[in-house]
Design goal:
CATH class: Mainly Alpha
Organism: Coptis chinensis
Order of helices and strands: HHHH
GO molecular function: fatty-acyl-CoA binding
Number of helices: 4
Number of domains: 1
Family: Belongs to the ACBP family.
Oligomer: single chain
Pfam family, one: ACBP
Helix content: 55-70%
Strand content: under 5%
CATH topology: Acyl-CoA Binding Protein
Shape: flat
Keywords: Lipid-binding
Length: 108
Amino acid sequence: MIREEHGVDKDNIDSGFQYCFKEDFDEHAEKAKSLPESTTNESKLILYGLFKQATVGPVNTSRPGIFNMRDRAKWDAWKAVEGKSKEEAMNDYITKVKQLLEEAGASA
Protein backbone atom coordinates (compact mmCIF):
# COMPACT_ATOMS: atom_id res chain seq x y z
CA MET A 1 0.00 0.00 0.00
CA ILE A 2 1.10 3.50 -0.73
CA ARG A 3 1.44 5.83 2.22
CA GLU A 4 1.33 9.57 1.74
CA GLU A 5 3.23 12.12 3.83
CA HIS A 6 0.47 12.46 6.39
CA GLY A 7 -0.12 8.77 6.93
CA VAL A 8 -3.13 8.64 4.63
CA ASP A 9 -3.56 5.33 2.85
CA LYS A 10 -4.01 6.27 -0.81
CA ASP A 11 -5.42 2.84 -1.71
CA ASN A 12 -8.25 3.28 0.81
CA ILE A 13 -9.03 6.76 -0.54
CA ASP A 14 -9.14 5.48 -4.12
CA SER A 15 -11.37 2.52 -3.27
CA GLY A 16 -13.65 4.76 -1.19
CA PHE A 17 -13.96 7.19 -4.10
CA GLN A 18 -14.73 4.35 -6.52
CA TYR A 19 -17.37 3.01 -4.13
CA CYS A 20 -19.08 6.42 -3.85
CA PHE A 21 -18.88 6.88 -7.62
CA LYS A 22 -20.43 3.43 -8.18
CA GLU A 23 -23.21 4.29 -5.71
CA ASP A 24 -23.90 7.52 -7.62
CA PHE A 25 -23.97 5.57 -10.88
CA ASP A 26 -26.36 2.97 -9.43
CA GLU A 27 -28.61 5.74 -8.09
CA HIS A 28 -28.81 7.37 -11.52
CA ALA A 29 -29.45 4.01 -13.17
CA GLU A 30 -32.53 3.74 -10.93
CA LYS A 31 -33.57 7.30 -11.77
CA ALA A 32 -33.25 6.52 -15.48
CA LYS A 33 -36.00 3.94 -15.10
CA SER A 34 -38.44 6.75 -14.31
CA LEU A 35 -37.64 8.94 -17.32
CA PRO A 36 -40.81 10.06 -19.09
CA GLU A 37 -42.17 8.17 -22.09
CA SER A 38 -41.37 11.25 -24.18
CA THR A 39 -37.64 10.52 -23.82
CA THR A 40 -36.33 10.04 -27.36
CA ASN A 41 -35.06 6.72 -28.61
CA GLU A 42 -31.76 8.44 -29.40
CA SER A 43 -31.36 9.45 -25.74
CA LYS A 44 -32.35 5.98 -24.56
CA LEU A 45 -29.76 4.43 -26.89
CA ILE A 46 -27.05 6.77 -25.62
CA LEU A 47 -27.88 5.71 -22.06
CA TYR A 48 -27.90 2.06 -23.07
CA GLY A 49 -24.47 2.28 -24.69
CA LEU A 50 -22.95 4.11 -21.73
CA PHE A 51 -24.53 1.69 -19.25
CA LYS A 52 -23.17 -1.35 -21.09
CA GLN A 53 -19.70 0.20 -21.42
CA ALA A 54 -19.71 1.05 -17.70
CA THR A 55 -20.93 -2.35 -16.53
CA VAL A 56 -19.62 -4.81 -19.12
CA GLY A 57 -16.82 -2.98 -20.91
CA PRO A 58 -16.13 -3.17 -24.64
CA VAL A 59 -18.63 -4.87 -26.95
CA ASN A 60 -18.21 -8.62 -26.60
CA THR A 61 -20.85 -9.90 -29.02
CA SER A 62 -21.36 -9.97 -32.77
CA ARG A 63 -23.45 -7.26 -34.37
CA PRO A 64 -27.07 -8.42 -34.75
CA GLY A 65 -28.42 -8.95 -38.24
CA ILE A 66 -30.21 -6.33 -40.30
CA PHE A 67 -33.63 -7.82 -39.53
CA ASN A 68 -33.11 -7.40 -35.79
CA MET A 69 -33.27 -3.59 -35.85
CA ARG A 70 -33.85 -3.06 -32.13
CA ASP A 71 -30.89 -5.12 -30.96
CA ARG A 72 -28.74 -3.79 -33.80
CA ALA A 73 -29.43 -0.18 -32.71
CA LYS A 74 -28.55 -1.06 -29.11
CA TRP A 75 -25.35 -2.81 -30.24
CA ASP A 76 -24.40 0.22 -32.37
CA ALA A 77 -24.97 2.55 -29.39
CA TRP A 78 -22.69 0.41 -27.24
CA LYS A 79 -20.06 0.20 -29.98
CA ALA A 80 -20.17 4.01 -30.34
CA VAL A 81 -18.76 4.47 -26.83
CA GLU A 82 -16.17 1.71 -27.07
CA GLY A 83 -12.83 3.00 -25.83
CA LYS A 84 -14.26 4.94 -22.90
CA SER A 85 -13.04 3.76 -19.54
CA LYS A 86 -15.54 2.38 -17.05
CA GLU A 87 -15.27 5.62 -15.06
CA GLU A 88 -15.75 7.83 -18.14
CA ALA A 89 -18.81 5.85 -19.17
CA MET A 90 -20.26 6.07 -15.65
CA ASN A 91 -19.63 9.81 -15.51
CA ASP A 92 -21.16 10.41 -18.95
CA TYR A 93 -24.16 8.24 -17.99
CA ILE A 94 -24.75 10.22 -14.78
CA THR A 95 -24.45 13.51 -16.70
CA LYS A 96 -26.91 12.35 -19.38
CA VAL A 97 -29.48 11.15 -16.84
CA LYS A 98 -29.27 14.48 -14.99
CA GLN A 99 -29.71 16.34 -18.28
CA LEU A 100 -32.75 14.28 -19.27
CA LEU A 101 -34.33 14.67 -15.83
CA GLU A 102 -33.81 18.45 -15.96
CA GLU A 103 -35.35 18.58 -19.44
CA ALA A 104 -38.30 16.50 -18.25
CA GLY A 105 -38.79 18.78 -15.25
CA ALA A 106 -38.65 21.88 -17.42
CA SER A 107 -41.27 20.54 -19.81
CA ALA A 108 -43.64 19.38 -17.06
